[in-house]
Amino acid sequence: MNNILKATTSEAYNLMHQGTLALARAERTGLRVDMKYCEKKKIILTKKINHLENEFFETNFYKRWNHVFKEKVDIQSNTQLSTYLYKVMKLTTSYETKSGQGATDENALQQLNIPELNLLLQIRKLKKIRDTYLEGFIREQVDGVIHPSFNLHLVKTFRSSSDRPNFQNMPKRDKEAMDIVRSCIYPLKGHQMLEADFSGVEFRIAGCYYKDPTMLKYINDPKSDIHGDIASKAFMIKNFSKEEHGYFRSAAKNGFVFPELYGSWYKSCASNLMFEWGKVPKTSKFKPDLGVEIEGSCMSDYMMKKGFTHFEHYEEHIKTVENYFWNDIFKTGKDYQNSLYKEYQKVGYVESYTGFRFYGPMSLNNVLNYPIQGAAFHCLLWSLINVDKFIRENNLNSRIIGQIHDSLVMSIDPNERDYLLPIIRRIMTQDIRKVWDWIITPLDIEMEIAPVDHNWTFMKKINF
DNA sequence: GGAACTCGCCAC
DNA sequence: AAACGTGGCGAGTTCC
Question: CB < 7 Å to strand C — which of 223-242 in chain A?
């Protein structure tokens, strides 16, 4: 493949070996947990949950549920809820789970428009915070410190995973959940929490594999924005701006661009984009006043204003966007997808630039995704190893304390901050490219830092 | 009474 | 022909 050298298998082994040692040192350091806050919040959450449950028990909705299941009634049982909604009340399922049971997840419940179900969703959310996150901290802490494990041997793509507790799925998007959970987490005493995130690394690494000229142009020009461009097409926005149309942009990014790169197609993408709209049903005619409020009206109204009458009508529109994506702008990318899969069928494996081989029965989607997902994470792992090495060679007090796929989480000694932060940037954006010449795209990072002895909710952007 | 499963939900 | 990927974990359910 051109003149770019892949890493050898022994280099891949070395990455695993050095990575395991560096991550073990991060595990040993761990993160401080404010146990008093944690216990206090647990009590407050329990009170709120009890209050909401009592309110729910008063509703006719619950009384009928109770009547059906008698002494076995359990508001936490989705099996009961599904039976009650779709068999007893005979409501229409908007979609089903893998095993054919009527879905009872947040989206499915919202589409039913039953106010009592909002109580149930609120209860679910608070229980998740309490029972998964706070209880996890309490169970796993040793003298007020948690030591999340980071595994390099469990994930099919040679990414990492984390457990006991999982440090890689702490709430971030939901403000209430984020505040409660991340308020528990502190760096070492007298230190500052720091996160160094690769910006759009998966798309950039995808560019290294796809070698599509238009894709590379998008990556090289910081003013261009593929997700915004697709959003403006998918949602018919004339003068798109990142600030004004941020919601549409993330819908396009997560509902179209990435799925298409990993083998999805327009029908699923149309449904993904619709899914981002909340309560809008995915089938049949658009009705007024459904979905999140946007531009002063609801999403369904927005759609109708744009001239769409049915979901199927919108699907056809996304088909034209898909056509534009693969035939007009990323033609070379489509060729890459086809030739990679042919190569896999011929030799029985695919390889990452970082020297890993993926064997076994794989779908087209797997073949497209694994090398990119793996190599993108390996950029972070290589950086982590070398930041750790630098810290040890220079006897610094700062420590790596975790890692979330494309971001490095550290406890920084404030006296070392001005010296260390530029070095972290250099390692992650320059040194790595001297070692791995297959990275033909620029890399960039974003850093966030919290004040001394402040918790993980106080992160603010910092330029170094 | 525990293993293995499903479902829902958190992250990238 | 088929239709975005990778995890962990809690609670309920099913199977032995």
Answer: none
